[in-house]
Write a structure and sequence with these properties.
With 366 residues, this protein is an alpha/beta fold. Helix content is 49%, strand content 10%. A 6-stranded mixed β-sheet has the order 1-4-3-2-5-6.
Length: 366
């Protein structure tokens, strides 16, 4: 059963021959810049204009020597609310590194008021453990987001210890940079380059689809690599087309080398990406030029752990790896679990997984 991510599926939907999608829930995809940006990564951060604080210790100025993550959100926005709890964990985990998380809500055309903000925070109980500010009108939001050409919520801005803007994107994408920024080891030029890639990611997806359809493997390699650099979790499934591109170009050894580093590094928390790597190496319909079953097992097992063995499609991959490694009994055991764990959205894979189970059972010692 072929595999690629839901993000890759969107990009490759127009292909005549496309792998079967086994979708995970991706991290929010970067939104394109919506207006000419006046505020860029590397610029000095604007001042805060806060009317009051709904929760936490008030912050009036962005002090040098501290890192700030400004989370612009709204109580009507589901993603905004979901990220409040995640950022509470971030605040707790990075407090000793002088990170200060501030949630900033502003008045808007939907009728957002400070009362609605207070209600949203109260409804979260004790889950929100960082400062929540009520903007002075839209002054702070305009100074940061409007000046950066952004209007989509939620959106986060990371300000480094020197008071420079280091990141303007969805907060979940910014987590990959926090270690470096809080340590002061980040490279603003490199982060500005990343920002550019993030902003053009929707177009990169379209370019990837065109290149794949034309079998232009060098371009496929370039576009898929860029997407994986932007977001190794949300765009993780593109690890499949990246490896295929190198395999088709006669560089399977390089694909394996890259995959080993990616599985242990940027892709280690991407169940979709890890599963993609494993499936490329064991796909019976499109055998990869170079097989590395140890790498496949490592990637598939990690993907299963991340999903708590609750994803039938990923378990199907794990079973295939064990089968190819000669542990037929283990393959049968896991494949049966894969059938039980298929989600409603994966129902179309049932027939294929049942066929694989019959294959494994037929290979059991008599």
């Amino acid at each position: 059963m072929n595999f690629h991510s839901s993000v890759a599926a969107l990009a490759l939907a127009c292909l005549a021959v496309a792998p079967v999608a086994r979708a995970q829930t991706p991290a929010p995809a970067p939104a394109p810049t919506q207006a000419p940006a006046k505020l860029k990564v590397g610029d000095a951060a604007p001042a805060l204009s806060i009317e009051s604080f709904v929760k936490g210790t008030p912050v009036t100025t962005l002090e040098k020597g501290k890192t700030y993550l400004l989370h612009f959100w709204a109580p009507w926005n589901k993603a905004s609310l979901e990220q409040l709890q995640i950022l509470s964990e971030v605040q707790k985990n990075y407090a000793d590194k002088k990170l200060v998380v501030i949630g900033i809500a502003s008045t808007d055309v939907t009728g957002t008021t400070i009362e609605k903000v207070k209600t949203a925070i109260t409804d979260k109980g004790g889950a929100v453990e960082f400062a929540i500010a009520w903007d002075k009108g839209t002054e702070t939001k305009d100074a940061f987001l409007k000046a950066a050409g952004r209007s989509t919520l939620p959106c986060a801005v990371i300000v480094d210890k020197e008071g420079k803007v280091a990141f303007i994107e969805n907060a979940l994408l910014g987590l990959q940079f926090l270690d470096a920024v809080t340590a002061g080891t980040h490279d603003l030029a490199a982060m500005a380059a990343w920002q550019t890639k993030a902003e053009r990611a929707p177009q990169t997806l379209k370019s990837l689809a065109t290149a794949y359809q034309a079998r232009k493997w060098a371009e496929v390699l370039s576009y898929s690599t860029e997407l994986l650099e932007v977001d190794p979790v949300g765009y993780g499934g593109n690890a499949q087309v990246r490896m295929l591109a190198q395999g088709k170009s006669g560089a399977a050894d390089k694909a394996i080398e890259w995959a080993k580093a990616w599985v242990d590094g940027p892709g280690k928390n991407s169940p979709e990406g890890l599963n993609a790597v494993a499936w490329v190496l064991v796909d019976p319909k499109e055998p990869f030029p170079k097989q590395d079953l140890d790498l496949a097992l490592k990637a598939a097992t990690r993907a299963a752990e991340l999903t708590k063995n609750e994803d039938g499609a990923i378990l199907d991959t794990v079973a295939r790896v064990h089968f190819l490694k000669g542990d037929v009994a283990k393959a049968v055991e896991i494949q049966k679990m894969a059938l039980l764990k298929l989600k409603p959205a994966q129902a179309q894979f049932k027939t294929q997984i049942e066929a694989a189970l019959k294959e494994y059972e037929a290979a059991l010692p008599k």
